Amino acid sequence: MGDDERRLTHFNEQGRAIMVDVSEKPTTARTAVAETKVTMNEETLLRIREGSVAKGDVLAVAQVAGIQAAKRTADWIPMCHPLPLTGVNVSFRDNGKDTLYITAEVKTTGKTGVEMEALTAVSAVALTVYDMCKALQKDMEIGPTRLLSKTGGKSGDYKAGDRSAERPDC
């Protein structure tokens, strides 16, 4: 393990938790894309698409929830760095039957990545969909949730399915 890898740890010399010091890292453009899905009855998905859910426009509210969650990730995830986000885009697609797919792309120019912000965004979106539709259906399923890609930073780019970008010591 090199010096850089030893410094980028959430533990100090005494084994106590710390926030990683990224002050020596260069500032770069960084992007992360995450996805999750919500599986539901066909009728529930149809009501979402039609905008006929009693609580209102599910997708519009869920988009705002995802953007807000991305902006506040450091408040939710211990030792996550607060980042000035330069862009958050939440999008939806469905399979025409029973599954709503949620994708979030998050961007920053900074010293650390936005993977956690993208993952937090899709999680908040899925939970908002559930909350707004639970009167119609309580047995909706959320997940799996995963990182699709990330660009920028010292560790390089990552695309889901590309195991060469994964580091065994992380």
From TrEMBL:
- Ranges of compositional bias, category Basic and acidic residues: 156-170
Give any GO molecular function from the UniProt entry.
cyclic pyranopterin monophosphate synthase activity
Keyword annotations of the record = Lyase, Molybdenum cofactor biosynthesis
Annotated EC: 4.6.1.17
Q: Does the keyword Lyase apply?
A: yes
Pathway(s) annotated for this protein in UniProt: Cofactor biosynthesis; molybdopterin biosynthesis
Q: Which residue numbers delimit the Molybdopterin cofactor biosynthesis C (MoaC) domain?
A: 19-153
The answer to whether the entry has keyword Lyase is: yes
Top-rank taxon, per record: Bacteria
What residues sit in the active site? D131
Alphabetized Pfam families for the sequence: MoaC (PF01967)
Q: Which reactions is this enzyme annotated as catalysing?
A: (8S)-3',8-cyclo-7,8-dihydroguanosine 5'-triphosphate = cyclic pyranopterin phosphate + diphosphate
Q: What class of enzyme is it?
A: lyase
Q: What's an example GO BP annotation here?
A: Mo-molybdopterin cofactor biosynthetic process
**Region annotation Disordered: residue ranges?**
146-170
Binding site residues for substrate = M79, C80, H81, M116, E117
HAMAP family according to UniProt? MoaC_B
Q: What does this protein do?
A: Catalyzes the conversion of (8S)-3',8-cyclo-7,8-dihydroguanosine 5'-triphosphate to cyclic pyranopterin monophosphate (cPMP).
> What binding partners and quaternary form does the record give?
Homohexamer; trimer of dimers.
Q: Which NCBIfam families match?
A: moaC, PRK09364.1
Similarity section:
Belongs to the MoaC family.
Name of the protein described by the UniProt record:
Cyclic pyranopterin monophosphate synthase
Q: Which organism is it from?
A: Cohnella fermenti
